[in-house]
Amino acid sequence: MSVIEKIKAKAKENVKHIVLAEGDEPRTVQAAAKIVAEGLAKITLVGKEESIRKVAAETNTDLTGVAVVDPETCEKSPAYAEKLCELRQKKGMTLEQATDLVYHNTLYFATMMLKMDDADGLVAGAINSTGNVLRPALQIIKTAPGISTVSSCFIMELPTKEYGNDGVMLFGDCAVNIEPNADELAAIAIATARTSRELLSTEPKVAMLSFSTKGSAKHEVVTRVQEATAKAHELAPDILLDGELQADAALVETVANLKAPGSPVAGKQPNVLIFPNLGAGNIGYKLVQRLAGAKAIGPIIQGLAKPVNDLSRGCNVEEIVNTVAAVAVKAQG
Description:
This protein is an alpha/beta fold. The chain has helices at residues 3-13, 26-38, 49-58, 77-88, 95-104, 106-115, 130-141, 182-200, 220-235, 247-251, 253-259, 278-291, 317-332; strands spanning 16-20, 41-46, 67-69, 121-124, 151-157, 168-172, 205-209, 240-245, 272-274, 295-302, 308-310. Helix 8 crosses helix 9 (220-235).
């Protein structure tokens, strides 16, 4: 069974309610019907019902079982606006501004649904930038307890079983934080380890990557990874984690025995790799995807108090379905 099949099976065990903020986007409409048909989640599409029904007709999509809500007519919109104003009034938001956002910006309406426990998770990004999707989430949902940084990871499913947990690894952060400091890097490591537990039911074994192994090189970037490793140990002593490690020392037992003898992670099938910055992470996952033929699932957004996930604007229907399944499983946690 593939990783995504396992995630879908887990989603079906405890069905959650996911809101799709871009309700009249054609791929999203088709995905909504497929998600409900497969029993992966309860779905609400946000937008004008006339527009959503028109798209469904044009794409020959049966929306039986899919809920549709229009912010302009929803009876809960006034309460959402009042709550949004309350949450943001210290930032200068007025009730008039909050009302305008709730009634006319589906991302804010959907985020308020999540905030007010009228949904368990949120997915958007097929026609919105990552910044637009995450902005209301950061303003309203905020970060999870003990986590100061929102980040991302990719699930990498390798065609061979040589590395990771039966060929499955998590790479973080590959999509959000450009140059994380030590505290942010520690938060990324902890969040990615938690994602391993939540999504894959796999105990994380985390390697903090660098161009240095155990002090073999001196540089501020190396020091940052060393400090992040110490911070992660302090904040989450239950997570098996070690660093700083070069990639070969982390992955290959013979190299680990030479460069990092005694490490609880190096050369012992680490399944979570934490990259020192976005450049390394983004390049790394794409190289493994293209050169090793790995399947990349993500990015999975992590670190928020409730599950919100971005989509690639180039996503297809199946990728939306897969993302919703992952968010549904995270909502179970």
